[in-house]
Design brief:
single chain; alpha+beta; Aminopeptidase; 7-stranded mixed beta sheet; 3-stranded antiparallel beta sheet; 7 helices; 27% helix; globular; Acyl_CoA_acyltransferase; acyltransferase activity, transferring groups other than amino-acyl groups; N-acetyltransferase domain-containing protein
Length: 233
Amino acid sequence: MSTPISPSTSPAAPTPSTLAWRLLQPADLGTMEVLHRLSLAGMAAHTVKAESRDFLASLLQGRGQVIGAWAGQALVAYGVLQHDLLPEDDPRPHLGLSADRPAAKLAGAAVAPDWRGQHLQRTLIAKRMAQAQPGAVLFATAAPDNTASWHNLLACGFAVRALEYRYGGFARYLLAHDPAAPSAGPALAASGLDVPSSDLPRQQALLHAGWRGVAPGSTAGSLHLTPPPGGAA
């Protein structure tokens, strides 16, 4: 059984290129929970949702897959790919997709503080995308003020498709990656708009009208949205 990480754990000699990757098993629950709690330190409650031990256990018992990065016996990062979705979590109605289309959620990730700034979040996104069923639409949620989270997802090909209020009324972007859908081309992206995060109602109205958030905007915290194909800018 792996040794739980502690706040004093340091990368020392290991680097991201030397990490060992494997799927977490039920026996790793304690280690996973410790890293989850550690990753929340200093984060506002409305920005990142704290998960229960029972939820984490359900992921390791078959509701999803959890890929972990290990430095020796220490778990330094993990990412969740959840395929057993609750009805209220299903993004397909929002995305205009049929109910039989495969879908999975990137349902959280954590990186130990000493390992931040080494692109492990993007590595975790890429590894989960590679694990997913071929052709599946993938989705994730991120708080608008958790810019690092949605910037990483946008960089990996996701797009903001909706702005919703979840987890007790907190704002969340719904980001999706549909391998069957064309991405926004340069001409379409050039016709878009930067909308600041201080104007969430405008972002929500544009997204509801079919616009998509495809990149960070030119000012801090803003989102660059492009019109739907054939739509007016």
